[in-house]
Amino acid sequence: MGLITMTRVKKRKSGGCFAAAIVTAAIFAAGVIFEKAFEGLEKLPEYGTETAVNVTLQNTKAAEVPVNRFLILVNGENKIPDDYKIELTELSNGEKVDSEIYPDLQKMFDDMRDEGIYPVVGEGYRTRERQQEIMADKIRAYENEGYSEKKAEEMAKEWVAVPGTSEHELGLAVDINADKEKSDNQEVYDWLYENAYKYGFILRYPIGKTLITGIDYEPWHYRYVGEYAEKIHKSGLCLEEWLEKNS
Length: 247
Ligand SMILES: [Zn+2]
What we know:
The structure is a single chain. By secondary structure, the protein is of the alpha+beta class. It has one domain (18-245): 2-Layer Sandwich (Muramoyl-pentapeptide Carboxypeptidase, domain 2). The chain is 35% helix and 11% strand. It has helices at 18-27, 31-37, 102-114, 128-144, 149-159, 185-195, 210-213, 229-235, 239-245, and strands spanning 61-62, 78-79, 88-90, 96-98, 119-123, 173-178, 201-203, 221-224. It is globular, with a radius of gyration of 17 Å. The termini are far apart. Residues 1-58 have low confidence and may be disordered. The structure holds zinc ion. Residues 14, 168, 173, 175, 221 line the site of zinc ion (ZN).
């Protein structure tokens, strides 16, 4: 059975700053700019939001690809190597994921549906070019609001992962939401939090870890780590912390 029959869910890109959004909205409460700033806000968590941190990327280096590549660490400081190879499988809604995570993702979705919860993949693999476009759009939007090029770039980085630093470019990350006609997001997030590790996925940006991950709490963003998922989930650590402790 195919993974999905669903509409594509717009999403706020990684690296967001909710506080900034509120300020932006207050100042620019009209027109296209307003819409852009709020793109995807329906996906914000229904509880436990926290303040984002603008992590300045000073020492971005190429991420090391470990022997078990499912443990690759990609974030503001560790960029996907340019020669990183991915084989992709396309889902029934057109989204793509790394072919090796597909069977576990499918199994997880099947099991969720058996329990009467209906998830969809809002976003899987994202190309570098797409990430660059998203960043360029965001910078342009801020420039149109009257910010200098430098300031616009700085502000955009609070909302959008710098190209090369988004896990979506790995094909190992999926944003999972509810098929709105049958489920609500919260029940999907709750189920995932309790069960996703059994299928090799971890909540990548937990509450309380924003200072370390550089990304707001994102209850929809799951990252495949394979056989280590249970250990990482049960440790209560985020991926950065767990890798540091176990390297
Ligand atoms: Zn995501």
